[in-house]
Amino acid sequence: MKKFISIINSNPFIYFLGIAFIFLAWYIISIAQGYGNIVFPTPVETLVKTGELLSNAYIYKCIGWTILRLLIGYSISFVLAMILGVFAGYYEKFYTFLKPLIIILKSAPTAAFIFLFLILVGSRFASIFIVVLVTFPILYEAAVAGIKNIPDHLNEALKIDCGNFVYGFIKVRIPLALPYISVGLLSSFALGFKTSIMAEIISGDTNYGLGSAITAFRNSDASNLSPIFAITLIAIMLISLVDIAILLIKRHFKVQ
């Protein structure tokens, strides 16, 4: 009996109950629609459609192109954030100087930037620049936090014992800041992935991409949402892999 109660009170079991609740609520809503589950597909219909899509090469091309655009934008964002974030963490005045820009990037509506980049670079590249704008503040603040959380006595020791400023940064400060940078890196990657799909949908990009696939299925049959739910489920599964990686890294570095 005690073992049974222990299992019920365990976090994995409660987590499973949370998932079961979502699927139950999903099923009840789909049945309540009263349209033969066409407008709002049931979980079973969505899983069946997901299996069909995963057996089609088209969906893998869409996943590949979305991830490629994400990686391009994310690489640009990462390089800029690390360079600026490290110096902002070390130089308080530089941090203050960049603060208004970071506030604007964090506060401005993403959709507004999408329409701006549609005009400037076209629908094919708009999602890349959106990923840069959305992920940059997170990566930047992670780099700043990592540098600022280095103990003062280590900074003082580096000033005395390490004559080479660049060497001290690369060999000591960056490794010490790595736990914060790693968590920010993966957290912003998941956000960038979702943002990239959203940008593909809003921009109306007709090339390969998960957002483009959602638009294509929506335009081909507006009454059947099962392909859209299936693509969303695929995106959730991919993002979940990133979330698992975030959890493992947090446990490894013992970062909250």
Walk me through this protein's architecture.
The longest helix has 39 residues, at 165-203. By secondary structure, this protein is mainly α. The mean pLDDT is 78. 85% of the residues lie in helices and 0% in strands.
Content of β-strand: under 5%
End-to-end span in angstroms? 34 Å
CA-based gyration radius: 23 Å
Order of helices and strands: HHHHHHHHHHH
Q: Which spans of ≥5 residues are poorly predicted at pLDDT below 50?
A: none
Mean of the pLDDT scores?
A: 78
Biggest beta sheet summary:
none
Oligomer: single chain
Q: How many beta-strand elements?
A: 0
CATH class of the largest domain: Mainly Alpha
| Domains, number | 2
CATH architecture of the largest domain: Orthogonal Bundle
The helix fraction, in percent, is: over 70%
Q: So, the CATH homologous superfamily of the largest domain?
A: MetI-like
What is CATH's topology name of the largest domain?
MetI-like fold
C-alpha geometry:
globular
**Alpha-beta classification:** mainly alpha
The helix tally amounts to 11
